[in-house]
Design a protein that fits this description.
single chain; 149 residues; alpha/beta; Ribose 5-phosphate Isomerase B, Chain: A; five-stranded parallel beta sheet; 6 helices; 46% helix
Length: 149
């Protein structure tokens, strides 16, 4: 699977951990946007990854900022993006199994390296359950169809 990842300056350290974990799982990883540690704005970084997903250049995305909240809010402004903030393995699993999240948002300030690896592993290994959740995703898709990027 091809995963697009990006962070702002506060998420750069965890971005490297996530990139390593995804590579270890056998995924292709495209670190997008600024990766030098210079100060940057999370909406710009989120936009790069969300556009890559929308354009079919990536299968899923991971976004990291200080809290993860700003990235999640921004990502969810893009039609077709279902971004979820996960601070533990259970929220990562549920974001996939119930919501078919295609973008994982993480907190560079609150999520340590070991926990970050576990969250990413849980998120990548969890499939969408479908069933009753499919009806809800169809409703989200109808809302998306009325929104332009």
């Amino acid at each position: 699977m091809n995963i697009a990842i990006a962070s702002d300056h506060r998420g750069l350290e965890l971005l490297e951990v996530v990139r390593s974990e995804l590579h270890a799982q056998g995924h292709e990883v495209d670190a997008m946007g600024l990766t030098t540690g210079e100060v940057c704005d999370y909406p710009d970084q989120a936009g790069i990854v969300c556009k890559a997903l929308r354009d079919g250049e990536a299968d899923r995305g991971v976004l990291i900022c200080g809290t993860g909240i700003g990235m999640c809010i921004t990502a969810n402004k893009f039609a077709g993006i279902r971004a979820a903030l996960a601070l533990d393995e259970l929220s990562a699993q549920l974001s996939r199994s119930h919501n078919d999240a295609n973008v994982l948002c993480l907190s560079g300030d609150l999520v340590g390296h070991a926990l970050g690896r576990r969250i990413v592993k849980a998120w990548m290994q969890t499939d969408f359950e479908g069933g009753r959740h499919e009806r809800r995703l169809e409703k989200i898709a109808r809302i998306d169809s009325r929104i332009e990027d």
